[in-house]
Please model this.
Amino acid sequence: MNTSFDIWLWVSAFLTLCIFSFLYKDNPFYKFAEHLFVGASNGYLVTIIWHGSLWPQGIRPIFAEGNWWLIIALIIGMLYFTRFFPRTSWLVRIPIAIVMGYGTGAAIPATIQADIMRQIQGTVLTPQNFARWNAGSTGVIWTVLLFIGVTCTLSYFYFSREHKGVLGVTSRIGIVFIMIGFGAAFGYTVMARISLLIGRIQFLLGDWLGIIQ
Amino acid sequence: MKGFEYLLKIDRRIIYLVIGVVVILPLIFPTVERVRVMAPAQSLFNAVDSIPEDKILMVDFDYDPQTMPENEPMAIALLRHAFQRRIKVAALSLYVQPLALALKALDQVTEEFNARAQTSADSIIYGRDYVLLGWQPPPIVPLLEMGISISNVYSTDYYGYRTDSLPVMQGIENFNDVGILVSISGGNAPLWWIGYSQVLYGVAVGAGLTAVSASDFYIYYQTGQFSGLMVGMKGAAEYEELVESRLRVPGERKASEAMPSLTAAHLAIMVFIVIGNIGYLMRRRT
Model:
């Protein structure tokens, strides 16, 4: 056992234990750590945004380097603060409209290409898709299974007709695929949460107490 | 049947205690658990390994302390791989919070290599072998503009040096000079690199993901949009295994060391699920 004498490790360990204490029940130690986290995060963010963005990319270029045209962007950005004043709060629509317009314009083609077109291409039964599984001759089986899964799942979400006959069969198969998907997602969620727990235990037993190397 | 009723009402604190015990014991009494490398991690390793000399590995650090146990071992293993192969690295972040963690990972791996180095040529030197480009808000700016010019987006690096003056950035103009971009993230950042940077400029993208988001990302690996993946702590352990077994790079393997605990915890949860279902079925019968 080789316990650390680093004061910050002790602070970190204390706060970790404060948060873990919520597993028993809500208590003042948990509340203390929670509020400290929120306050420290906000303070850190404000400082970093000032030093990393607002000063080097806004204030300094305008007032120290003479890029006066940037003042237009700064004023538009400042309009977000008009929200705090009822008489001028309508002005906040200007920066929101600009951000939404730019963001939507950039996102739509990207989404169509990356999320729709490429996914359709990846579902089609082609030799290229068979080979993509790196599974030899069984690549055909996986691709067909994927094709059945996608089409049956899509049919489940087709609500313009009653789910009877062929549509009833395919939608029921679709439910099976959806449930398998939920199961996989749940399994991964468990893995993720346990991994985070392990990370903290490694810190407590390793970095702090020195029980594990 | 009262016993089965009890199965459905196990105090959650007992479950926490059991999970705690099965996680802690394998860490205190470690056992050797072989890590089997799966195709997504192998593909990523191969993609990084085949980066030509004139191109760089771009690493997007987009994880924060909340997902650090999963993402940090990925970053460490990836950097060990790159530095061992003398692949030039440009690190960045789309958000501000991960910058300190990027710096931590870069410093750790640099110190590991420099502790073993005999000469300057063996050492890993900032500016020559790697650069921390920093953070450029909003995220859409680096995602789109680096396809035109990296040094225009990051005119100065994290420390304030002009990026076009750094030896590591000589000959590196835009995404055409990036061998692969690996986004290590606890969120959706890897999808943005695909949606914007890959669609527009064709840059190859790999990802290190938290397990919770894995099922959303696999479809992009299947279509070839991701060149490779590290999924959760298991993915990190696979990459650690590849780096140590193929490249003989020694070092702490936090993800691999956690595998027995992860396995034990999974088994415990499976047992609890089975117990809960038995209790449910027995209650329905009565």
